[in-house]
Amino acid sequence: MRVEIYCAPTADGSKEWQSSMLHIALEGGCFVLSACQFCRRKDFPEHPDYLFTDWYDDQEPDSIVSQGGSVIISPWEKVLAGPNFESEGLITADLDLGDVARAKLYFDVVGHYSKPEVFNLTVNEHRKKPVTFVSKSVRVEDDSEPQDK
């Protein structure tokens, strides 16, 4: 199955998250829609356990607690909308799904670039012990592999 639109909801509005979304778009050859929450201190009920003082110096009701950063990115790493760090809002973009096909022709890690004659994945279905304890005085037999008879 080919991914055309990758949705990545988050609470992380950092530059590193934005970089990850750009990478996913390019590597996956897909559109990335990342929705990030935006909220202010006044959006939370008053409660003594909310220790916003540990995070922010600004204790005003309109001070930002989560900065947002929702973004829409094309398969070519082009930011089509956002990131929105200003306010609560809705971002939109027109998506040309033909860009997905064009991106796959450019870099298709599971298609024409795959080399099954060189690389393969082998799945060992035999039961294995996740932990084996070994001491110097006792030799432990690994009974997780089938024994030839």
UniProtKB/TrEMBL annotation:
Name a single GO biological process: detoxification of nitrogen compound
- Superkingdom assignment: Eukaryota
User: GO molecular function terms here?
Assistant: nitrilase activity; nitrile hydratase activity
PROSITE patterns linked to this entry: CN_HYDROLASE
Q: Which InterPro entries match?
A: C-N_Hydrolase, C-N_Hydrolase_sf, Nitrilases_CHs
What are the residue boundaries of the CN hydrolase domain, all occurrences included? 1-97
Transmembrane stretches, start-end: none
Under the heading PANTHER family, the entry gives: NITRILASE (PTHR46044), NITRILASE 1-RELATED (PTHR46044:SF11)
UniProt-recorded name of the protein:
CN hydrolase domain-containing protein
Organism lineage reads as: Eukaryota, Viridiplantae, Streptophyta, Embryophyta, Tracheophyta
